[in-house]
Amino acid sequence: QVHLVESGGGLVQPGGSLRLSCAASGSIFSIYRMGWYRQAPGKQRELVAHISSGGFINVADSVKGRFTISRDNGKNTVYLQMNSLKPEDTAVYYCNAEMPTITFWGQGTQVTVSS
Length: 115
Hints:
By secondary structure, the chain is mainly β. 0% of the residues lie in helices and 55% in strands. The protein has strands at 2-7, 10-12, 18-26, 33-39, 46-52, 57-59, 67-72, 77-82, 91-98, 103-105, 109-113. Strands 2, 4, 5, 6, 9, 10 and 11 form a 7-stranded mixed beta sheet that branches. The chain has a 4-stranded antiparallel beta sheet with strand order 1-3-8-7, with no helix packed on it. The model has no long low-confidence stretch (mean pLDDT 95).
């Protein structure tokens, strides 16, 4: 089992920044990739960015150049730095951890971009 705890969401004005954190605990040795997804009301959950244990990064085109994913292996934590936020970035952001046979999800954190 892997337990994921997200933090850092909130309300921010357009153009502002937020940093999300996702701390993993439990049987983390088999995790090969961690990432962030988001789901806006009435829409499907979509990939924002993920990072492999080897450091390979994939970022969605919609956030490329504005969002940065990183990880601190010593703290078992993945971060999502979000800059130049837009109203369309408003969503619940979920952290996930992928293992060979199962994927774990966090509880989600709300990000609202509004003036």
